[in-house]
Automatic annotation (TrEMBL):
<dbReference type="InterPro" id="IPR003660">
    <property type="entry name" value="HAMP_dom"/>
</dbReference>
<feature type="transmembrane region" description="Helical">
    <location>
        <begin position="298"/>
        <end position="318"/>
    </location>
</feature>
<keyword id="KW-0812">Transmembrane</keyword>
<keyword id="KW-0472">Membrane</keyword>
<protein>
    <submittedName>
        <fullName>Two-component system sensor histidine kinase YesM</fullName>
        <ecNumber>2.7.13.3</ecNumber>
    </submittedName>
</protein>
<dbReference type="Pfam" id="PF06580">
    <property type="entry name" value="His_kinase"/>
</dbReference>
<keyword id="KW-1133">Transmembrane helix</keyword>
<keyword id="KW-0418">Kinase</keyword>
<keyword id="KW-0597">Phosphoprotein</keyword>
<dbReference type="GO" id="GO:0004673">
    <property type="term" value="F:protein histidine kinase activity"/>
</dbReference>
<keyword id="KW-0808">Transferase</keyword>
<dbReference type="InterPro" id="IPR036890">
    <property type="entry name" value="HATPase_C_sf"/>
</dbReference>
<dbReference type="Pfam" id="PF02518">
    <property type="entry name" value="HATPase_c"/>
</dbReference>
<feature type="domain" description="HAMP">
    <location>
        <begin position="319"/>
        <end position="372"/>
    </location>
</feature>
<keyword id="KW-1003">Cell membrane</keyword>
<dbReference type="InterPro" id="IPR050640">
    <property type="entry name" value="Bact_2-comp_sensor_kinase"/>
</dbReference>
<dbReference type="InterPro" id="IPR003594">
    <property type="entry name" value="HATPase_dom"/>
</dbReference>
Amino acid sequence: MRKMLRNMNLMKKLIVLLILFVVIPILVLDLVVAKKLESITEEQVGNALLQLVRGSHLTLDRESSDFEEKTEKIMISQEIQQLASIPSSSEYERFEIFKKLDKYLSNYSTNAIRYSMFFSDTDKQYSFVPNSDILNNGIFYATDLNALSWYKSVSQAKGKGVLRVIDKFGYNPNNVKTVAYLRQLNSIYNGETVIGYLLVSGIETPLQQDFSPFDKYADGQVMLLDQENTVLATNTEKFQIGSTMPVAADKVEGVYKLKEAGVEYMHVLHTSEATNTKLLMRVPVQSIIIDHISVQRLVDWIMFIYFFILILASMYFIQSILKPISRLARITNSYHPGRPLAISMHSESKNEIVLLSNHFIRMTDRLNQTIYDQYELELKHKEIELSILHTQINPHLLYNTLESVYWHTFMEGATESAEMIKDLSLIMRIGLSKGKLLIPVMEEMNHAEAYVRLQLFRYEYAFKVHWDIEEDAKKYLVPKVILQPIIENAILHGIKHMSQDGELWIKVRSRNGLVTISVEDNGYRQADIDMLNAILQGKESNRGFGIINVQKRIQLHFGGSYGLHYSHRQDQGVRAWIEIPAILDENEWKQPPA
């Protein structure tokens, strides 16, 4: 690769470098960000849909409660309860009973929802009554209730209502299914006496009307399922009532994704213990992120156009450099000391390379003028000195300005703002430290205290800080500004969101030739200590730049035996501690060989 670049001209090198270090990194970053945004979009939409499904399921449960109340009213009515004590009667009397019940029940039926009752007629005393194969609803008598598909589950419910998918009553050559609310009618005087069975069919109609909140999701498929995952109500023709929807046994509630026939679906599932039903919504993931994809495509086109313009502009820019450089090369090649150049100066231009060519021509005319050359060198030397002095003056100027602003603010009565400015100037002053790399523990603590005060003000004193600094340890030297990144991590990742419950403990001890500085927090989130220590050991890259900086500076000064460590705090939170040798003079420490 290096040999290939060496043999390329400058234009090709520029294009290759642009592609390697600009185009490819930005494209990779764009891909990573797009995937992350796609994941965040799916998560946020999934959570929103789960809340919508929960709310809709509560509405469906209320529908079931309405049917329970109505069937309860029918069961305890005098017309039904008196059937438990009616003695054997003549056919005429039985016909009158049938008519009276049919008239009573017809008051509850509507076009969509139909009420029916089934009674046992083992003696065939009601053979004159049409069966359910002829009538859509009404009063029916069965010689063998066990032959009815729903009988076993309803009788086992002992009077509780159940939802079941059954064949529609009446003429039904296509075996059209309907959802029925079924309930065993018991005597209120003798709970063991079964009067009959009440069926409310066609309830999928009101249930499906409650799916209206899902209408804005055109591709969404919503299904109400029973415990056996049988479809009770749906808003899609793909899954008919009575069909079985495959749902994993371990899926009770939540959001998960499944791939079916090459299409990835987001499944949002909620289970109701009140009705023993599940409400499932299926949405193609593609339809969720379609807006994100459209925006991403727009960004991709903008980036493509940008890269194209960037390459054209770079080619133009390099050409504007190459031509003057080529002319300068010709001038340099034709020059011989002591001989005037046959090439005249180029017209005045703001192009730096053209200016350089003109300066070179002028320089050749004055090359033998030793005094001028010496003067020019001295002038350039002084310019460099002034530049260095300028870079030293600016931080001191900023510090002195902050001191002036502090006193001005203090005199105006804004003490809180003044104290913040004072803390900021203190941080600036300790950052300068007169060029020193090692400062006493006391100065480092002053810097840390100033930083903590600024953070307390920023977060409206939402946490407490406990300082425990051993007096004898204040004199030892430490690398400057090593506590601030550790305290910042403890606040941001530990106690930032704990309201008034967050606490920091900052301790300094000197024992057996070592200075130990610890920062502890009682953060409620479980920290990955192994990952933090792996970062400090250089096993994790592209993260933890603050603590890596602290670790490297400590080990550059004192060697690999010292540095920063992390562990879980005994009660709750994280403990970070630094171990360095206890020294009073930087010159007395000799770093052991690596």
